[in-house]
Amino acid sequence: MKAPARFVVRGGRRLTGEVEISGAKNAVVAILPAALLCDEPCVIENVPDISDVTISVQILRELGAVVEQLGPHTYRIDPRPVNCTCVPYESARKMRASYYFMGALLGRCGLARVSMPGGCPLGGRPIDQHLKAFRKLGAECKIERGMVDLQAKPLKGNQIFFDVVTVGATMNAILAAVKAEGLTVIGNAAKEPHIVDLASFLNSMGADIIGAGTDTIKIRGVKFLRGTSYPVIPDQIEAGTYMVAAAATKGDVLIKNVTVKHLDSIISVLEKIGVNVEADEEHDQVRVYVDGPLVKASVRTRPHPGFPTDMQPQISTLLCLAAGTSMVKEEVSEQRFQYVDELRRMGADIQVDGKVAVIEGKGVLTGAPVKACDLRAGAALMIAGLAAGGVTYIEDIHHIERGYADMVGKLTALGACISKEAIPVENAQTLPPAVGEV
Ligand code: EPU
Questions:
Q1: C-alpha angle 9/11/15, rounded to 5°?
Q2: What pLDDT does residue 21 have?
Q3: Selection from 197, 196, 168 nearest residue 47 by Cα
Q4: Is residue 375 in contact with ligand 1, taking CB distance under 6 Å?
Q5: Does residue 56 line the site of ligand 1, with CB under 6 A?
Q6: Which of 38, 42, 120, 141 is labelled catalytic?
Q7: pTM
């Protein structure tokens, strides 16, 4: 077994220079399973080098698909030899997005047996809306011993109205409906960029999906999906994370290969905090720099096009470095404030009451040993470490590596002093308690 590793961040250096954003995690984790629906081989480009992709590829291979890596970011998937409809616990538990194999296998084979998903511990994260969509399309759904059993003979288009706005269930409904007989209309659909990307990928194979990116999506089922070559969109949250890292270190960074439109809500909040953002839509890049004081702000997370919950820990970290009392309201995910205890180790003054965090901006943070409790918490701790005086040791970095491609390399190129090293045995399990912990 590999020894567990940690990131060591020596903070206090301004980030300067250029960084290239990778393909979007939350798009590619749906597009890879969606390739199962294709009746010919297809090629997917701009695939990020993250562990969620490694796991998705492994699951595709376990199902019988032939997956070849044609280049560092390009995969060819031939789903024709698929001969298995089961994704067992050992594979599914490693990532939340394994639930997309339910919709994709059901759409392809009319059958799926997929373990309940794993992923970041962000609260209840039910899948009732996913199952509601499958049932509306005519599937029988049972959950037994941790496995979701789905069976359809055959899938038929229908009206699906979601009780909550959900990214995962909207994507799964699209996957199951794309080859179902007749018309499916999804109401109260999520509008995130990765939903549009999934629909564009499927349409490039000959699917008939309109309205992705609005709250009503119409899908007319087709019988055949042809091979395609398709580039994944840039990662909105990775871009936002580097924007905040640039701001937190009072740096000056050009962030390249972004879709500027997807960053509107993040740019708006950064500008409120006193960060300069020069958006260049023509060249798909944004420059972020700070030449004045950072100031308090009120932020609340909302489904797209609102401020993303996946940027909440990062922006809260920035607000620790701003003058004044800020308020952050989390309206999308449960338990998205777990990183607060870790930030307190670094000197942050944050009080959490239910969905609201009140942040007393102190202007400084200090290095400390911390643990990444989930992916975006890990990103926030990286930002805190970059801005802090002294050394920060970040453990449980597998969470970060699930969703950020080569973060050490990209940050080092921007002038950060950061390395990945094996955790010395004597240090394991010896973190001092956080402030306020008994
Ligand atoms: N919900 C239900 N029932 C369902 C599904 C969701 O009640 O069947 C609720 C959830 O409990 C939550 C809300 O609806 O309160 C939104 O959940 P959603 O389904 O949109 O989230 P998800 O599909 O599980 C995706 C991203 C998350 C991101 C959320 C919100 C992927 C693989 N994951 O999760 O990404 O936080 O949407 O935008 O796309 C991350 O990238 O760090 C991450 C956690």
A1: 100
A2: 98
A3: 197
A4: yes
A5: no
A6: 120
A7: 0.95
